[in-house]
Amino acid sequence: MKILVPVQFVPDLVEELVIDAGGDRLDPYSIRWKLNEFDEHAIEQAILLKEKYGGQVTVLAPDFEGVEDALYEAAAKGADRLVRMCADFYQGTNSHALARLFLSFVQQNKPDLVLAGVQAYSSLDGTVGCLLAGLLDWPYVGYVSCVKPGDQRVEVRKEYPGGLTAELEVQLPAVLGIQAAETPPRYVPISRVRQVMKTSKIEEFNGDLDLMGGLAPEHMFPPQVAARAAMLDGDVDQVADQLVAILREQGVL
Amino acid sequence: MAVVQSTSPMAADISEIGAEMAGDLHLRDCIQCGMCSGVCPLGFLMDYPPIRMIAALRSNTFQRVNASDTIWLCVACSACTSVCPSQIPLTRNLMTWTKEEHVLAGNIPEELQLALENSQRYGNPMGESPRKRTDWTRGIESMVPVMGRDTRQADVLWFVGDYASYHQRVQPATRTLALLLHRLGVNFAILGPEENSDGDSQRLSGERGLFEVLAEKNGRALKKYRFKEIMTTDPHTYNALKNEYPALGINYPVRHYTEFLAERLETIRPRLNRSLKARVTYHDPCYLGRVNGIYEQPRQLLQAIPGITLVEMPHNRKTSLCCGGGGGGMWLDGFQWEKAHVRLSEWRVREALSVGAEILAVACPYEASRFEDATKTVKNAEGLLVRDISELLSDAIDPLKGGEL
Fold first, then answer.
1. Which residue of B17, B96, B103 is the best one to mutate when testing the A interface, meaning the one whose CB has the most A CBs within 10 A?
2. What CATH number should be reported for the domain holding residue B89?
3. A138 and A4 in contact (C-beta within 8 Å)?
4. Would you call B61 an interface residue with chain A, using a CB distance cutoff of 8 Å?
5. Dihedral sign, CA of B7, B10, B15, B18?
6. B298 and B183, same structural domain?
7. Are B94 and B130 in contact (CB under 8 A)?
């Protein structure tokens, strides 16, 4: 089975976020980029599948600072093919643009299964995996935490809110949005990453970045302090009554 | 026939590192006296304490050792090494190599994994922003020159270290030390954001490659500037610079801050004008005392403080008990509690109480938070103060009476 993991980079929140001088986006050059956590799980899930059932894992990553480290680390974990997607992502990017870029790679390389992180906290315009499946007209299941391959299909476990899970059969080829790998992403010792760097090759894939369809923020600003909190006093019944009154007033009930 | 069947698969099972260990450990020198395992603070909980590890190596059954996860109870305190009559480098080689095998095989407790990933990505195990490494200098920036930003040379390069830079409990002690150096007229500078974790505890928790990467980064930063010597806050940094970095071509004279200050004791003494009136006991950090033989300078500093009565705990100097933070222990609290249901820091705090100490003095940035936590859970320990030696020195200086600090 050919598995493709298209990943994306998100701002590392360990650093302070800086708003661009234009005031409508983050300054991409002051951001420290990191691999989206859900994509790390997607990579892990792909490697687990390969280890258990065989197959070939390709990791496709947009060209951000740190892309080589992320790809070599994936190779050290067991990925077979590393691809850097070249485009000027620092001018801006969005889920629609990424999905279109991933689409052209998928069309050329024809994977059986695409595992994408279910979400990324920097996405404003929908999740990439879902959009990609739409463009391909392939089935999509999100919030997946377990994948088992079968004949021309996969069995997946999908998480629902409230502790519910469902087991679904999905016809291949398909796109899955990975919520969590079956086991947490493994640690690879640096010595192994260094070894892999000597023997692995990073391919390049060129694409045109087309931002159509994304959201264009008008104004970006840090959260502002407001004094709108109210404390409800009294016993349980009194608090409940007050709460109901407030919810009615707000039009929620 | 049975013998052939049982030995050949075992011989095939022994790993490469195991074979290397067997050669480099002078296994024949081991007399199986068991002192290593008796003195090990958590040896009684290990499936394979050092004596059994060596026995397993000798009998080609080391895969059994690798199948157990109790190696992660080892806090690299070097107690085993210090008592070995055959002087086998147990901590540095046997225990650390075994951890390396576990790391290579991917058998690594999750909390340790996070610390290693953080060290890799951010250059510090707690995952703090490297840009914020100098945040502790806020308000005293003018007294703490940063190499590259304020100067390119100084007499003393102060390697501040991870916990002294970032840990909330340790930052005040770091500031105190900075002020003390400033008032003493020491011409010093720090590396600031260019400083990376010294990597020693990562090495001792089995990530040799990561240690080398961090050391190389520090080596490159140090090379850019001119200074006569390095002073460290952290005994682990001291150990790395003194004993491990030279093999990587990074060679500088290095001293721990207690050595550095003890040398200036005659300048410091007249400034100590406030009596502290307290029974104080001193905890020898493993990598200052047992591993590097520095026992007296910290005590000299404490004894210079007016009003202090220095008392010794039953385990002191070479036999000091580890705080539990070494060899990755700093990042294995959950794992160790699950396995052991004891905390080494609590034993130490009980010892401090047993000698009637009111203050437990420390000289390693791992310790203040560990011992302070322990005072909250050990019975009758709530009155025990945990203070870094630099904090006690500063406590003993009263600016109103003409003292300076």
1. B103
2. 1.10.1060
3. no
4. no
5. negative
6. no
7. no
In chain B, residues with a C-beta closer than 8 Å to the C-beta of A187 are 103, 106, 108, 113, 116-117
CB contacts < 8 A (A, B): 36
What is the domain-level CATH number for residue B345? 3.40.50
pLDDT digits (tens, 9 = 90+) for B178-236: 999 999 999 999 999 999 999 999 999 999 999 999 999 999 999 999 999 999 999 99
> Can you say whether residue A80 is alpha, beta or left, with left for phi > 0 and alpha for psi between -120 and 50 degrees?
alpha
Handedness of CA A190, A194, A196, A197 (dihedral sign): positive
Do the Cβ atoms of A85 and A106 come closer than 8 Å?
Answer: no
How does pLDDT run across B124-172, given as a tens digit for each residue?
999 999 999 999 999 999 999 999 999 999 999 999 999 999 999 999 9
Domain that holds residue B324: 268-401
Distance CA A177, CA A127 (A): 9
Q: Could you tell me which of B299, B208, B212, B309 has the C-alpha nearest to residue B261?
A: B299
Which ipTM was obtained for this model? 0.85
Tokens for A91? 């001018």
Taking an 8 Å cut-off on Cβ atoms, the answer to whether B106 and A187 are in contact is: yes
Pair of tokens at residue A227: 């004094």
Q: B97 and B129, same structural domain?
A: no
Residues B100 and B127 in one domain: no
